[in-house]
Amino acid sequence: MMTKNTFEKFEEINKIAELGGGEAGIEKQKKAGKQTARERIEMLLDAGTFVEIDKFVLHNSTNYNMDKNRIPGDGVVTGHGKIDNRLVYVYAYDFTVYGGSLSRTNANKIVKIQKLSLKNGAPIIALNDSGGARIQEGVMALSGYSEIFYHNIKASGVVPQLSAILGPCAGGACYSPALTDFIFMVKEKSYMFVTGPDVVKAVTHEEVSKEELGGAATHSSKSGVAHFMGESEEDTLMMIRELLSFLPSNNMEDAPIVPTSDDIRRESEKLQTLIPQDPNMPYDIKELIEEVVDDKYFFEVMGSFAPNIVIGFARMGGKTVGIVANQPAFLAGVLDIDASDKAARFIRLCDCFDIPIITFEDVPGFLPGCDQEHHGIIRHGAKIVYAYVEATVPKITVITRKAYGGAYIVMSSKESGSDVNFAYPSAEIAVMGAQGAVNILYRNSKDDEKQTALDEYNELFSNPYRAAELGYIDEIILPKDTRFKLIQALEMTQNKTETNPPKKHGNMPL
Ligand code: HXC
């Protein structure tokens, strides 16, 4: 029979575990403007749903008198709970315990819930705040990372994996997030780098701050490592909740349906005039997207990186769709290396989780120049078409204006496997723009001959009719009808079954 003493002992260990690195560590954490691991989990999950696992696990290292300081839980809080009443697994590094560093023992805790998430088909969320491998443990800590990465990769495409960076994320700690589907960072509070400013200075003689080297702004706009940047921890965690609302729990389920009162037949007069008559005038493709989707709500992903292409989630008739759109308001929507990488990865994400893809196309072509060629625009640009062709989810394309050259092909053209291809009457579908074509074909002609050739080319190609005559465009539609036309196409393709030929895996250009 239990005595009072056994309960007291349990309460005592429980209290020690919940204090992590202790009052002083918590105070330091707060001073740095950060929440504790447990507070973060509370904020993230539906109230009262968190179930902690392995709360009393202790490390077993004896180096550097480590056996004298063993804190129950060992610096990572792991378990499961609910978000919008759906099961999720979660783990949070506790920076107050050895700087949230990874030990062999707390790696075992993480691996345990990685396995549970895979076996039970529910998303896994990592809240990172860590100095990397626990230095005192040497190779044991490295082996912990190896095993976490192994499970990240095995779970890729099976369950959504999300990583929030809420403090430092140094060295080995970077690569688990990098292997997950989405990375969230907090403005001016989090940073990720493989080697910190001191090592950078010693090796390359560059002087750089932590923020500049690997802060949220850097990774959201320059490196493309991070997908979202929150204003605060709370804002960041709320974004995770929202993103999950667009995703299924695993690759065998559908994303949740969110009923809407937005009429599926809603027409938009605004769309009739959004696209300027002058093909050289920009417009904001996000305005077009918002006019079309449920409740005019578009959840953009990687908004600050490669803004010449726009990606994100929305709903049509209550169902999640992934959107890929050229952005004429930035660099005329041209495709470059970063835009190619950004789009290709998102297309694959949608395909993993059975989310139909809608493509809005207005693209003058690939960006010319030595910089792009020498950094491999051929290899990177190839990823977009590879990802589209490989994707077996419903694919619907709307050409709003320019669809020139290779860019026409790679942006989900009919012949590269798109299911439904629409064009607005303003579409221009050709090998290149009129001026460029005339400069090549009539290089040695007089100006008046060139003008005649220009008019002739415009007549021939600066419209969607030639492509429609050939069946490359299924239907020419009025912009105001886009929403209903897309929903009809989504309904028509919702039971689509397509499989790729049997193979171990393809060899995507990387
Ligand atoms: C053990 C660590 C630690 C680590 C920090 N601590 N990092 N303990 N192993 N990796 C401890 C500190 O000793 C300190 O203990 C406490 O955590 C808080 O750290 P501070 O330095 O006081 O905090 P702060 O000033 O905020 O700096 C945070 C930091 C810094 C930038 C993360 O601690 C740091 O640079 N840590 C080392 C980062 C690193 O190089 N990690 C190894 C990467 S290599 P006390 O007792 O003083 O409170 C790696 C290999 C794997 O990860 C590669 C696989 C691909």
Description:
The chain has 510 residues and is of the alpha/beta class. It folds into three domains: 4-246, 2-enoyl-CoA Hydratase, Chain A, domain 1; 270-427 and 463-492, Alpha-Beta Complex (2-enoyl-CoA Hydratase, Chain A, domain 1); 434-462, no CATH class. Helices cover 39% and strands 18% of the residues. The chain has helices spanning 4-19, 23-31, 37-44, 104-120, 139-155, 175-179, 197-204, 210-214, 216-223, 233-246, 269-274, 285-292, 337-352, 370-374, 377-390, 405-410, 434-441, 447-461, 465-469, 482-492; strands spanning 51-53, 76-83, 86-93, 124-130, 161-170, 182-186, 191-193, 228-230, 299-301, 309-316, 319-326, 357-363, 395-404, 420-423, 428-430, 475-476. The strands form two sheets. Strands 1, 2, 3, 4, 5, 6, 7 and 8 form an eight-stranded mixed beta sheet that branches. β11, α13 and β12 (357-363) form a beta-alpha-beta unit. α4 packs parallel to α5, α13 (337-352) packs parallel to α15 and α17 crosses α18. The longest helix is centred in the first third of the chain and has 17 residues, at 104-120. The chain starts with a helix and ends in an 18-residue tail after the last helix. The model has no long low-confidence stretch (mean pLDDT 95). Bound molecules: hexanoyl-coenzyme A.
